[in-house]
Amino acid sequence: MAPPGPQKRKQPSPPSTNRAAKRSKANKARTILTQTSDKALNKNGDLDVSAFVKAREFEIKAMGASMAGSKKALSTRAFQSVPKNLRRRTASHNVKRVPKRLRGKAAKEMKDDNTPTVTARRRKPTPHQRLRLEKAKELKRLGKLIKKRHEGVKKQKPGETDPQTLVSVAPHIPKLKKDTLSTPAKPPPRFRKRQIHKSWLPTHIYHAKRALMTPPKEPLWRFSIPLTPNDKCYRSTHRAASARSCVAWDMSYISTIGVDGVEASLLGLLRSIGVEEGMLVGKKGQKWRRGTRGLEAWVRERDGEGRWIAKVEILWCLDAEAVDNGTTIAEKKAVKDGATEQVQGGGEQNDVGNEDEIMQDAGTPPKQVFEQERKKSRRNLLLRVHPSVFFQVWNEILKVAKIQRPQAMVEDLRFEIGSIEIVGPGSTEALVGALHPVQDAQSTSRTRTKASIEDEWEDIETAERIWPQLAAVTNPGALPANAVLAFNVSDPRLHHPPRTVQLPSQDPDNAAMCEILSSWPPDQTQSTPEIFDRTRRLTASRLLASQKAINRRKGDALPGAYPAPSSRDPKIPVLLIASRAPITSHQGSWILLLPWDCVLPVWYSLMHYPSSSGGNPRFGGLREKRQIAFEQGTPWFPGDFPGTKAGFELELMERERKKREWERRPKGKRTEFDSVDLGNGKKGEIGVGWACDWERLFQGPPPPSKDTDDREASLLTSRANAVPDDNQSKPLSESKRTSNVTTDPRPSQPHPPTDPPSPPLSFHHLVAPTATTRPIPFTALAPVHLTLNAGHPTATARIYRLPTTNPDLRNRWLTIAHPQSTVKSKDNKTNNIKAARRFTGLAKITTPHDRARELAGRLLPPPTFPAAGTSTSVPHVSREGGVPKPGDKDYPCVPDEIDLIGFVTTGNYNLGEGRCEAIGNVAVAKVVGEEGGEKGRLGDRNGGLCIVRESGQYLGRVARWRFL
Amino acid sequence: MVRIKHRYLLVHILYPETTGPNAKSTSSAPAKPFPHLIQFHRPSPNELTPQLLARAIRDQVLLLYGDYGLALISSSLNVKYLSPATSTAIIRVSRDHFRLVWGALSYMTDLPKPSKLAPTRACVMQVVRVSGTIKKAEEEAVRRARGAILRARREGGEGSLDGFLGGLGGLGGDEEAGRGEGAGGTGDIGDEDEEDGMDGESEDETNEL
User: Fold this and answer.
1) What are the residue boundaries of the structural domains of chain B, listed by start?
2) B6-20+35-193 topology per CATH
3) Distance of alpha carbon A744 from its chain centroid, rounded?
4) pLDDT tens, A451-470?
5) For chain B, which end, N or C, has fewer CB atoms within 10 Å of the first or last residue's CB respectively?
6) How do residues A864-876 score in pLDDT, each as one tens digit?
7) Which residues of A fall within a CB distance of 8 Å from B157?
């Protein structure tokens, strides 16, 4: 009995009549053509070489045809031809889920298969759904009406966007208020409601269509930021960023702060926010101070405990005259008074307009005049700050700027300067294709007036001219580190769609490029970047023609030609920074700064650029940013810096999210953190299972009594207990020293409750832990990089040092780390000697024969640990039974909580390295100088062995760590 | 999901006799003897059809392994390809029992006869490749055909091609050396090929089992 109402499926169709036809077709496709034997003989029926060859040739063809034919005859479904990055697993057959171009085919297949397209649930709307549908319908109708009305209004005033009627008088540009926070421009009415509590990036709509954005109610850092593209892209992002194409991000959410003042006060400002002294004076930072290089530096609070805030990018504005005069003056001075004042190389600056005077001055430089000029002249600084720490940095800078005499002015340029970051071998090429420099009439005239040795340079090698020649650069890191290029570009929409740039392939061209990269003429020839000038920025944004006007001009142009440039075209000031990865073989990245409103046109040109290696640049979200940082072995701000305020805030958010996720799972399917068996009778995860529980790390296990003093005391005693008694004298003294440190009156007042995101227990980030002088504060955190041979750590994995309380356990772990050499604690001394002998290399072995044998012995056994170095052949004690494997009974359990040193913040399989790696944070005081007996062999201040255990699991893995 | 797994045997039929019924004008005695390659790889008679070959294999399996062996293979045995012009065949058997067929082929010393009255003709069935997909068997056949063409051209007097085609052949000097030493029975031509076939087989086994 068929149930009444709509049936779930149609009745099965009668057996298809074309089945036989299908079958015969398949059979036909599978047969391979053959020849009769007379084709392989000559006319007389004799063997013949040419006939033999011909028969073989026929066979080759027949085989080829068969292979192609049977492949073609395979029946494929529509969803099988969906590109890989769009494939899905659930409901992949569903017409509504396949890309549009395949829908027709998919619909037919579904019909043939008699697959239902609608779910039974949605067949008949529920009463509630019905109401909603009706409402939607009504709204649609109303929307149409409103649209119609608006169209009518629009028709009444045509030519609004006509450039001919557009007045070229600049509107009044309101002066930017100094020392006050800026607000984003008022968005157009239809987008206004969606930006009440957050701002959109200039490319928001592009990204919202193609990427997962932050949820509307939970913006990140007051922005709506793309998190990850909709497409599957983990592997392709890796490839694009390291091997083939490039990945671009709209980084306009990075906040920009402008500081304006005389050089001395700017330097004072930077000094007091913690910029390295070596950069502020002396030759090292000369180019940076001149404005031809960028700098990434950590800044800190000036007052209080001087906590590190974040890494910021600091850029000086360059003045072309200053550079030229600076060099000449510097030369003269070098002759005159022995070049003690190299510092001022880039410091001097002149007011615009009295250039000639200065030129004359330069001929005979009276030192006082020069000094006065230098002191008087105002310079500009740009600081690029991550939005999560913007307010913090802003307040610091504001505070410090007011102290300076003369005062420095601080501007909030957040919604005025946008930026794009792009990384990958094709990045330079894509940028060259998207950015077309305009030759400035002023600058050319200026170069003519100059009469110096650099004249030839000027003619050829200005930044505008250098830029197109860089197209063949496959790694921005090949440029001088943090090199700055600034010039003006034309509206990229005039050159849209972008065309592949011609890459030089001849040797002379390459040689020329090498010459450019090594000598880097823009250091001399760079003109003042106009992006520092607010009027220029706003003028460029204002002069951007409407798309309609652009289209008209493009229509007027000859086919295949770009529209002729006009004098009214905007000159978009851009500034490019070529930053370098910490490991130079990795890809560096370009950071492009440009006016906020100009980001969108440039972005579109960039995204549509056809690379010479095929494909277009990819775009990424936050996750991709983090992924690439991880693959390059660098920590990502703020996620990998839980010691900073921003990082801790993010950690709290993550905790909240993971907690929700954990609670949502049914009881049987979630990790029961309370029942994790950690061995030695310990049960239960350390701290909160889903978090990097820094509080627990510094507080230790919760004591039975709640008193804080007690807790402190127990903490200290436990730390004191942690010192093993049977260790060598040196580590013992060291650990004693550190335990003394903890008893010192250290700044550990908890932050006021009004400031929730600041890390509790006064734990904080420590920059350059290896260079820090002891005593290192107990609560200092520093990021470390972990490499593993086995195991797959993810965020929140626990990091232990080698056991310090249990020598037996320690030895068992050491055996696992160095499978071939058994370590005995008793004959540590002989061990060390042997290890040292092994370290010394082959040089000590005298005869070449022995040396060769030794070398072979080292090369042949399977690698045991990547950087171990000590695990070579010649095992002096052969161990029986081998090394215990994970899961074996004698596999050592993880150390006690005393030896917990930190947590993993990012961990994954590194596609670039081909093994699992992780980035974590450790309490510096717990690892520096506490390596126990392994001081000489494994542990030094820069790294050593540790044990990593995934949260909620009992199995520990050996890893090697180093400070980042 | 259960899949029916097959093996595809790529078989060359070799003719060890220097003369055969096909060569009618043996008496005319060509001035220059043909290279061994061409003599061994001479075309098969047109009477050899896929059906005939399959029946011969079945008979041989029956002879060697009895009814049980026959039953194991007969459901899956299929001659996918048999080209008399090149004396090449591709035979499909089930994966579990392809060795029976291989063995049967190895013991076949005569060409299967369409009728009892037909004259017997000595042959060697040489399995050169065992693969899991027909595509790989086909690729191997193409590779071997290419090599045969190059060698035939080189040895068959079209020396002019030597210069630029010589380098292309994957079958380089060592085969040349093998040929150099001999008048050659069936052995020397087969040696290397046989090894190849075994290699291929073992590879397949490791890959797919």
Assistant:
1) 6-20+35-193
2) Alpha-Beta Plaits (3.30.70)
3) 39
4) 444 444 545 678 888 888 88
5) N
6) 444 444 433 333 4
7) 49
